[in-house]
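2024-03-11 09:14:02 DEBUG pipeline.ingest accepted 1 chain
2024-03-11 09:14:02 DEBUG pipeline.ingest length=458
2024-03-11 09:14:03 DEBUG pipeline.predict start
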Amino acid sequence: MTPVGLGPVPVAGGGGGGRGAVPGPAGPLTTLAHGIGSQHDLPISPFYAFAGAFAALFVSFLALGLLWSSSRFRGDRSGLALPAALERIADAPATRTALRGLGLAAALAVLLSLLLGPDDPARNPAPGAVYVLLWVGLVPASLLLGPVWRLLNPLRTLYRLYRLYRRLPRARPRHAPAPLPARLGQWPAAAGLFGFTWLELAAPDPASTTTLLTALAVYTAVHLALAARFGERWFADADAFEAYSALLARLSPLGRRSDGRLVFRNPFHGLDATPERPGLVATVCVLLGSTAYDGYSDNPSWINTLQTSPLGRTPTATLGLLASVALVATLYCLCAAATRLVCGPHPRPLTAFAHSLVPISLGYLVAHYFSLLVTEGPRTVIMALGTDNAPEPLPPLGPGGLAALQVLAVVAGHVLGVIAAHDRSVRLFPPARAVTGQLPLLALMITFTIGGIGLLLN
């Protein structure tokens, strides 16, 4: 993450001083707020990092091939029902109204900070609230509590208030919402996610109040207008942050069974229940590709490219972000095509294994943004509370611990992806082809692992 002015973030091997600042394309210093180190300061051997990753992938692949011959994940049909009293509290109108009110109040606070606060990210909490508390904070919130943004989303709350107004006697007659085209799927969410990551990583001044106000106003107007046409379902299918939160929540131990019960479950069951819809592959590839670009964007060679490109910084960064997402999508499509060649025709070769990319994306998110969240998150909260003399939060891990966490997150994400893909493979393909059909997926996982660890060591 590279929003200007969010402050230096301690990184592995950096001695707590962060990456420092480098000259920006236009001259002023641009703080690089990544939570990862570079090859010269990451206190871990590249040989051991790559060797450990390969060993984990190959051992898990071989073990699964020998010991896992039938599908074990049951999607939304599984889970241990939680006590009825707890479910009643979670589903109570008062609980949901309180959460919607909290989300709307937080959005109004951010808006007031943008309108009335200084145009200085070091003294205005709004950029940190958007780029850290929202974008990065949704990761642990969704993993622990499920798709929380569905209840916190202030746009849903505004739409509900609008719908209540339309019920008043003096309001104009209401029209029934138009049905959403089935082929639309999650494509709007994928486009929204790309737009947000472009704002964060390629826009000329992503942390300025003018930029954020413009982006939030456009996003709000577009979604409320389309919700007025298609109804509240629009948010579940098309809102970028709801799709983002819902995808990560597939790995939450809390979920809903097909009968509506609130359950405690094996996260793999929730991952297996990921709907195979148009735009799912694009959404996951945007998540994975944008995080990969974020990791590469502070490489000295890329910084030099941005500074010297005749196109200018923003067009060059946009092309780099597009190329990163396109590369991830191309590799996945090639993998799906190879799987089809090995195993024979399949009605949905692209979407059948898209869910296996979700834990990989999660591993990248943890590796890249953990230190950002635990340092800039508290700083943003302290700034919002107006506490000027509070001590600056310190990272909970030293350089060695942070480096180990980053590598383990990337490797664990790929191992979880191998497990999810194997279970889907033995369900879809004949036993004789179930293991060989995963060889393209294994090659893809190895490629992504090399890239992920390489970004940590760049």
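2024-03-11 09:14:41 DEBUG pipeline.report Confidence is low (pLDDT under 50) at residues 2-41.
2024-03-11 09:14:41 DEBUG pipeline.predict end
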